[in-house]
Design goal:
- The structure is a single chain.
- With 560 residues, this protein is of the alpha/beta class.
- Helices cover 25% and strands 16% of the residues.
- It has an eight-stranded parallel sheet with strand order 9-8-7-3-2-1-11-10. A six-stranded antiparallel sheet has the order 12-13-14-19-16-17.
- It is globular and about 80 Å long.
- The chain starts with a helix and ends with a strand.
- 1-deoxynojirimycin is lined by residues 76-77, 79, 116, 185, 221-222, 280, 338-339.
Length: 560
């Protein structure tokens, strides 16, 4: 961190050390956020220019998570890194990065980097050295294995039956070594061997380097895959739709010694208070996510993001999360990211003929009031939609690499540039955007939505402001209300002295809710309503009946 950065941090720009629990994290896909130099690709100076949209005078988020900013051949949208220690010059200079950290800190925004430590690009110098022979400093840095004999045509046979998530085998033969290397993802993403002490030491040195530059948190890409079974046994097989599903992934992820690795990693972060990390759970259950969560090391679970937009699915997701995480572990809340469909599109589609605008507002309410640290993907605050991208315009090679048996879809559709204002380039770029903007960018942009108190952006701003001043919404316990039936999802969030009731109508018709008149809850204060067309009373008596319209969400506070 620069001297000015340290000075700023000392002047208490920041709140308590448990910001990672109370706060909201905003995910930026840097290529698509804001382009300052007009080359059509978002960059770090562009992010600096937009910090006021995110800081206390805007949304008021607590941290930004930057999807990878490192040099990368771009075979997997930046998740194929060729140098983990530097900034890709396309995004700016090293000085730009330090300035971004300082400028973010000045606004009370923490910075979280996305570390891809499971694999590198095949253009990473370690791999370039490793693949040429079995001797040399980096020879053992990757997961190399001898062939399991030869097939009938005399070709080397892969060491075991593991398959790639993106489709095809998880092993690629390297004739120069006479061995195979492993890749859970693309062949251009060879897997690092974390069991080699020098490899772990090098990874941790890289981690320290970023922390020294003022980074406040780290997202660990596909972290539960770091370790594989040392003997590389074949996975058992089972029935399933795709080659990946047809294996029980006993040996290529989630190894018993993995939690100890995370403890060693956490020890580095814990040298200073308030540093968080979040592991991206790869293809696992909510129980696995909860099991790997501890203290300020969070883990994404996919229960909410995978729930269809109906009350019973959302109630089940909330129940499963509460049961798995319990009181002692802190969950995350995620409804979209750079790998998944935009939430307004996905949820409205899953509900049938729903009004996607209303769904986006209610989804915002769920994201920001359910127990757990919310991760808000850029553009969701505008209700951005999946954008149709023709195959020849796709920027997601894995989507087309394998036509059969692949799990993946074209992620270009959820990575389109952020629209800031009307006009050519939508304020994202003065040049030609690297990926087309959504067809609605002329109206669905920050400038236009700021002027409309009913816009999705205004909804997010109201919700975020409410959350920032409502301890029960930040850190309170969650209890699904026993009367949460039919189309209604109802839950309370509570800290001593404050009880909040959240009501979501996830149906296409009106729903009724009778407020309890139980002693101690004589009346309720209306804190928030997604529907601002017909304002409700500010105070509602216990025992009153509320009618919620389709996809309407309201938040109430008990007046003792
Ligand atoms: C998880 C990332 O979120 C995804 O975008 C990427 O394709 C895979 N890891 C492989 O790097």
């Amino acid at each position: 961190m620069t001297e000015s950065g340290r000075a700023l941090e000392r002047t208490a720009t920041f709140g308590p050390d448990d910001w990672w629990r109370r706060g909201v994290v905003y995910q930026i896909y840097p290529r698509s956020f804001s382009d300052a130099d007009g080359d059509g690709i978002g960059d770090l100076p562009g992010i600096i220019d937009r910090l006021d949209h995110l800081g206390p005078t805007g949304l008021g988020v607590d941290a930004i998570w930057l999807s990878p900013i490192y040099p990368s051949p771009g075979k997997d949208g930046g998740y194929d890194v060729s140098d983990h220690t530097r900034v890709d010059p396309r995004f700016g200079s090293e000085a730009d990065f330090d300035r971004l950290v300082d400028e973010a800190h000045r606004r009370g925004i923490r910075v979280i980097l996305d570390l891809v430590m499971n694999h590198t690009s095949d253009e990473h110098p370690w791999f370039v050295a490793s693949r040429t022979g079995r001797t040399g400093r980096h020879a053992g840095d990757y997961l190399w294995a001898d062939p399991a004999g030869q097939d009938a045509d005399g070709r080397p046979r892969a060491p075991n039956n593991w398959v790639s998530w993106f489709g095809g085998p998880a092993w690629t033969y390297e004739p120069r070594r006479g061995q195979f290397y492993h890749h859970t993802f693309l062949a251009e993403q060879p897997e690092i061997d974390w069991r080699v002490p020098a490899v772990e030491a090098a990874q941790f040195e890289m981690v320290r380097g970023w922390l020294d530059r003022g980074v406040d948190g780290l997202r660990l890409d596909t972290f539960n895959v770091f370790l594989k079974h040392p003997d590389l046994p074949s996975n058992p097989t089972r029935a399933g739709r795709t080659p990946w599903d047809r294996q029980v992934h006993l040996y290529d992820r989630d190894q018993p010694d993995f939690p100890a690795l995370i403890e060693r990693f956490r020890a580095i972060l814990d040298a200073e208070p308030g540093r968080m990390s979040v592991g991206e759970l790869f293809d696992g259950t909510v129980e696995t996510a909860a099991g790997l969560t501890s203290g300020s090391h969070l883990v994404f679970d996919w229960t909410l993001i995978e729930a269809a937009w109906n009350a019973s699915a959302v109630r089940s997701a909330i129940e499963a999360r509460e049961e798995a995480f319990g009181e002692g572990r802190w969950p995350t809340a995620v409804l979209s990211n750079h790998d998944r469909r935009r939430q307004a599109s996905r949820l409205a589609d899953s509900a049938g003929a729903a009004d996607a605008e209303a769904v986006a507002r209610a989804a915002a309410t769920l994201l920001l009031t359910v127990r757990g640290t919310p991760f808000l993907y850029y553009g969701e605050e505008l209700g951005m939609r999946d954008v149709d991208i023709a195959p020849e315009e796709s920027v997601d090679p894995p989507a087309f690499r394998f036509t059969s048996g692949s799990h993946w879809w074209d992620r270009s559709r959820c990575r389109t540039p952020m629209p800031w204002s009307p006009g050519p380039g939508s304020g994202f770029t003065g040049g030609r955007p690297w990926l087309r903007l959504g067809p609605d960018a002329g109206e669905r942009n920050v400038e236009v939505q700021l002027t409309d108190p009913r816009s999705i952006l205004s909804t997010y701003r109201r919700l975020l402001a409410l959350r920032a001043t409502t301890p029960a919404l930040q850190i309170g316990s969650l209890r699904l209300h026993p009367d949460s039936v039919g189309d209604l999802v109802a839950y309370t969030r509570e800290v001593p002295g404050q009880r909040i009731l959240v009501l979501l109508n996830l149906g296409r018709v009106n729903s009724r809710w009778q407020l309890s008149g139980i002693p101690g809850e004589p009346a309720w204060r209306l804190l928030f309503d997604t529907d601002t067309t017909a304002p409700r009373d500010a105070v509602i008596a216990g025992g009153a009946t509320l009618i919620l319209g389709p996809d309407e969400a309201i938040i109430l506070e008990a007046i003792p």
